[in-house]
Amino acid sequence: MKLLRWAGAIALALIATPAASQTLTPQCRNAGGAYVPCTPTVQVDRNGNAYDTSVALASANTPAGPITLSGGTYAYSQLCAAYGSVALRYRAADGSTMIPLVTKVVADAGATAIQFGAGSVVDVALTGTTGCNVTLSRVP
Q1: Residue 82, number of CB atoms within 10 A of its CB
Q2: Strand 121-127 versus strand 50-52 pairing type
Q3: Taking the CA of residue 98 as centre, how many other CA atoms within 13 Å lie in the half-sphere pointing to its CB?
Q4: What is the β-pairing status of strands 85-91 and 121-127?
Q5: What proportion of the chain, given as a percentage, has pLDDT over 70?
Q6: Rounded to the nearest 5 degrees, what angle is found at the Cα of 83, between the Cα atoms of 54 and 59?
Q7: Cys staple from 103: which of 12, 74, 87, 137, with CB 3.0 to 4.6 Å?
Q8: pLDDT of 18-66, one tens digit each?
Q9: pTM attached to this predicted model
Q10: In 10 A of CB 45, how many CB atoms?
């Protein structure tokens, strides 16, 4: 009986004092496949798959470079202070060529809906523009 009380006291002590390493932060997988803390831009769908909700392709006329998407329907929008052309491009099957998908030369009246497969790689090419901001926002 004494041994049973001793074992119970040890078990309670272990439960009551969690170690710092036991503190868990919810983790989601980002578009690149890495585990990161869940945020409003890294969410999990009903099947438990992580997806990106908003991706900045260019900010203040500076392209972000190629970005891997989780797939689904995205709203493509852009706004520039001065226009030349804003080309949304995707990576071809050869793994290196970027092919223009949509080119804009004026401000959007509304966003353009585009479907992407999981793992699609996209970027934006800015030509003769100033003050451009370009985003892809995943439509739930």
Answers
A1: 10
A2: unpaired
A3: 13
A4: antiparallel
A5: 63
A6: 30
A7: 87
A8: 444 444 455 565 555 666 666 555 555 545 555 557 889 999 999 998 9
A9: 0.64
A10: 12
